[in-house]
């Protein structure tokens, strides 16, 4: 029996998110139906009921209650304390790499908390939204009119307003309590919740409700198993520690503290839902917290192992067609170029026929990315992408990054497309230093085969398979092969941009930039748009007629092009043809070489032995074809 690798979030995590709107809805309905709450005086300016103990509907309706003062008001400190105690004391978080990644996740969520509630290049987002919707500090304005010496800056934040003795009134006040409690509690749930799953499983084996840790890990033998098998192991001494004697012991101090903070957070969310704020203010608090939790692209840290395990299983079961290749390295000027030959690929099966949608409707083309089968799905990458295996692979572990909803392959890439691809590249690099090459084909001359937007991912380690070792026949050339995109970006690109030595040696225009290893979505898209505009200019388009391609991603591309990406390089190559004929020594046409985005890795693929022999005998033909498919260097 095989186990699928984890999807992010897991189904159980996704279900847990529903807990928050359920609590808020229940609390709001309770406040409307309870006579005690409904009849208590409510003051919109305070977003609360009367604070007089004799008139307040409950102890928890008073802002002075001990849980509000010492827990909610210091909520992020409690969340951080529970998180740090868990990370640095629980045996399940044992390696420096695990701790570093956990701290990075805490840093991202903490940054969102700061921007929303504390400071966002001035007033926090909560204060900015209040002012934007017509809110103001009433008494502070009166003091300004009276010349009481209150500066204009004093009315831009709720804290400054209260300090000046004013009332923060009139605008939409996002519930900071709901935001904080949802953000903190769900963050702890994601980090620590799986420990509790193991706790309940041991405590009540064979129960009516079986809660299972849905995350998976890759064992040293390649087996994919439940993360539960790793949950109690301690390798800090190079050996496994004894299993905890009880479920309570297994939670350890970190798990117990985090559980207490989580439960108290849920209780205070319920109290906020019943006694404080309007329903729309509580809803926006929930939405803003959810945006912070789900906006970042989440990629499994062990992505290379997940892809490898999924590929090996699919290959063994016949769910993936793998076509072995022979490889030679050709020298084009001083640039080493891989030429691969796969005779079996000529017999590649065609996709299913178009799906019929009725007698009066046109047949709908088959879309392999619309609903990929479980055997092909590697992982869901929140919020907008999924990673699937390439069903027809020439390079082992070839995967494809696709949008979850249909987007046009011929439209410009969005920032989240580039960010998702770069996140996968970083996951490979951070796992054990492995490289990943990403390419994108757009337009009729680019080698694109599917209209559903997708980027393709090739492990560089797999791209080296079959290359002769240095010192063997042809080994000196093979040893010099590296991903071409990195060489192009290091040289600065070509084509009207003052390219360097490598790009100047190629017969087609390429445009490249170095990118930061931790580049964000907007930085990636800005670089992409700059390169795209240069490629359009090389193709003869007037830049003034391009409009503003940076305005959005729902914009058709004006040219055919290929894109290549590595951790530190981004390259765009404009295309005017998909390929050209290959001829034997006597000038006879023996086939046609088609090139896609792998050309930016420095590779080409042929399907017939005649093409293979002809190009190895005359590498100059490959040079000539490169010149015909691109715009030419300028």
TrEMBL record:
GO terms for cellular component: endoplasmic reticulum membrane. Residues 505-631 form the ATP adenylyltransferase C-terminal domain. It catalyses: (5Z,8Z,11Z,14Z)-eicosatetraenoyl-CoA + H2O = S-(5Z,8Z,11Z,14Z-eicosatetraenoyl)-4'-phosphopantetheine + adenosine 3',5'-bisphosphate + 2 H(+); hexadecanoyl-CoA + H2O = S-hexadecanoyl-4'-phosphopantetheine + adenosine 3',5'-bisphosphate + 2 H(+); (9Z)-octadecenoyl-CoA + H2O = S-(9Z-octadecenoyl)-4'-phosphopantetheine + adenosine 3',5'-bisphosphate + 2 H(+); an acyl-CoA + H2O = an acyl-4'-phosphopantetheine + adenosine 3',5'-bisphosphate + 2 H(+). It is a multi-pass membrane protein. Its main location: endoplasmic reticulum. SUPFAM superfamilies: HIT-like. The active site is at 177, 277. Residues 300-463 form the Ap4A phosphorylase 1/2 N-terminal domain. The chain crosses the membrane at residues 12-33, 75-93, 105-126, 178-197, 257-280. It is found in: Endoplasmic reticulum membrane. PANTHER family: 5',5'''-P-1,P-4-TETRAPHOSPHATE PHOSPHORYLASE 2, AP-4-A PHOSPHORYLASE II. This is Acyl-coenzyme A diphosphatase SCS3. It comes from Diaporthe ampelina. The gene is SCS3.
């Amino acid at each position: 029996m095989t186990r699928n690798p984890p999807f992010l979030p897991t189904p159980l995590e996704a279900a847990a998110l529903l807990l928050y709107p359920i609590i808020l809805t229940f609390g709001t309905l309770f406040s409307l139906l309870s006579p005690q709450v409904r009849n208590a005086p409510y003051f919109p300016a305070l977003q609360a009921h009367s604070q007089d103990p004799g008139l307040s509907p409950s102890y928890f309706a008073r802002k002075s209650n001990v849980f509000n003062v010492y827990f909610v008001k210091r909520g992020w400190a409690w969340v951080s304390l529970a998180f740090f105690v868990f990370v640095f004391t629980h045996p399940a978080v044992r390696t420096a790499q695990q701790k570093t990644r956990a701290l990075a996740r805490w840093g991202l969520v903490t940054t969102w908390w700061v921007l929303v509630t504390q400071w966002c290049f001035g007033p926090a987002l909560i204060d900015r939204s209040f002012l934007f919707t017509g809110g103001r500090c009433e008494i502070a304005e009166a003091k300004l009119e009276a010349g009481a010496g209150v500066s204009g800056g004093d009315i831009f934040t709720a804290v400054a307003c209260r300090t000046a003795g004013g009332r923060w009134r009139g605008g939409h006040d996002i519930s900071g309590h709901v935001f904080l409690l949802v953000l903190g509690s769900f963050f702890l749930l994601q980090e620590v919740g799986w420990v509790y799953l193991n706790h309940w499983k041991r405590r009540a084996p064979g129960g009516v409700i079986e809660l299972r840790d849905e995350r998976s890990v890759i064992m040293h033998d390649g087996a994919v198993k439940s993360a539960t098998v790793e949950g109690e192991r301690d390798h800090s001494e190079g050996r496994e520690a004894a299993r905890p004697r009880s479920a309570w012991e297994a939670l350890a101090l970190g798990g117990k503290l985090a559980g207490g903070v989580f439960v108290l957070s849920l209780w205070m969310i319920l109290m906020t839902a019943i006694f404080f704020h309007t329903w729309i203010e509580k809803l926006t608090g929930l939405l803003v917290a959810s945006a912070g939790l789900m906006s970042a692209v989440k990629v499994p840290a062990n992505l290379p192992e997940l892809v490898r395990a999924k590929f090996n299983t699919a290959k063994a079961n016949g769910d993936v067609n793998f076509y072995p290749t022979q490889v030679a390295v050709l020298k084009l000027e001083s640039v080493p170029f891989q030429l691969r030959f796969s005779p079996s690929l000529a017999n590649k099966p065609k996709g299913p026929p178009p799906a019929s949608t009725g007698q009066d409707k046109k047949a709908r083309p088959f879309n392999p990315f619309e609903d990929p089968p479980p055997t092909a799905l590697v992982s869901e990458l929140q919020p907008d992408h999924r990673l699937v295996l390439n069903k027809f692979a020439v390079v082992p572990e070839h995967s494809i990054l696709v949008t979850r909803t249909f987007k046009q392959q011929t439209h410009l890439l969005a920032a989240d497309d580039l960010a998702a691809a770069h996140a996968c590249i970083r996951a490979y690099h951070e796992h054990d230093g492995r490289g990943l090459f990403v390419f994108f084909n757009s337009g009729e001359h680019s080698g694109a085969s599917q209209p559903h937007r997708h980027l393709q991912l090739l492990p560089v380690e797999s791209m080296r398979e079959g290359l002769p070792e240095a010192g063997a026949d042809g080994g000196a050339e093979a040893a010099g092969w590296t991903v071409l995109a990195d060489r192009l970006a290091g040289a600065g690109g070509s084509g009207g941009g003052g390219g360097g030595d490598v790009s100047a040696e190629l017969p087609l225009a390429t445009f490249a930039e170095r990118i930061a290893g931790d580049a964000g979505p907007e930085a990636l898209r800005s670089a992409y748009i700059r390169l795209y505009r240069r490629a359009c200019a090389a193709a003869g388009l007037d830049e003034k007629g391009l409009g503003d391609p940076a305005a959005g991603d729902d914009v058709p591309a004006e040219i055919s092009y290929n894109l290549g990406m590595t951790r530190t390089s981004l390259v765009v190559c404009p295309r005017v043809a998909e390929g050209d004929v290959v001829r034997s020594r006597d000038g006879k046409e023996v086939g046609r070489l088609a090139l896609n985005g792998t050309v930016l890795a420095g590779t080409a693929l042929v399907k017939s032995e005649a093409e293979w022999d002809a190009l190895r005998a005359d590498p100059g033909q490959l040079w000539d074809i490169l010149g015909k498919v691109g715009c030419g260097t300028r």
